[in-house]
Amino acid sequence: MPAYAPDPPKTARPAATTGFVVTSESAGQGGTLLVAEGGTARLRVKLGEMPDRPQLVTVRTSKPQALTASPQYVVFDTSTFDVPQDVTLTGVQDEDTADEDVKVVLSAPEVSQASIDVRVRDDDVQALLLSESLLSVAEGKTGVIDVQPKFAPSWTMTITVVSRNPAAALPSPTTLTFAAQDSRLRSA
Amino acid sequence: VTVVGLVDANATDESVQLALQSPGLPDTLVSVTVTEK
Description:
The complex is a heterodimer.
Chain A: E1 18-23, E2 28-29, E3 32-36, E4 40-47, E5 55-61, E6 67-70, E7 73-76, E8 85-91, E9 100-108, E10 111-121, E11 128-130, E12 134-138, E13 142-144, E14 147-149, E15 157-163, E16 169-172, E17 175-178, E18 185-187
Parallel strand pairs in A: 1-10, 3-10
Antiparallel strand pairs in A: 1-4, 2-3, 4-8, 5-7, 5-9, 6-8, 9-10, 11-14, 15-17, 17-18
Chain B: E1 2-5, E2 14-21, E3 28-35
Antiparallel strand pairs in B: 2-3
C-alpha cells in the first residue's frame, strides 16, 4: 500500500498564521491512514511557518476507545517549528470485528486545525464458542449446549443448527440469532 | 441448544454430528453420542 499522505487541512481559522505539516510512513488508502488494531502508526508533525510565539499543540482522537495518540501535547517554538515531532497512534483492542473510523485532530491557538482520517483495521476473527464440543445423550433424553459468538457481532448473526443424522438426534431450536453488538442469545 | 436423543429400534449407540452454520464462518461441529436405554 502507498505511504499515507494526508489531504490538506479543510478548515482554516482567520486568526491562524500557519498550518501543520503532517506525514507518515505508515500505509494509507484513499487519504485515510490505516492502523491495525493492537498496532501503531507514527505521525511526524511540524509547522509550515514560524509562529509568533510558542504553540502548544493538542492531539486528540474522536474515538479514544478505538485509537489513542501519544503524546497528547507537543510544543513548537520559533526555533523548533520545522523540526518534526513524533506522535504515535495506537489501535486499541476491542471485542468486536468491525473496523473503526477515527479522526485525529491537531489544534493550537495560532495554527490552522488539521484533521487526519484514520481507520483502525480490526484483527478479530469471529467464531462460535460452545460449552461442549462432545455430548452424550441417552435415547429419549436431552442435553444442552450453550452457544455464543466469540466477539460481539457487527451485524445480526444467524446460526442454523443441523443434525447430520436426524433419525438419531435433533437440535432445538434450529436457528439462533444474535443481534448486532450483542452476545445475548435470541432463538427463533 | 437442546439436543434430543431419539429412540430407535436397535441396540447400538449412535454417533451424530451437529453442524452450526453461519454465513462467513466455517461450520462449527458438535459430536453427539446417543446411548441406548
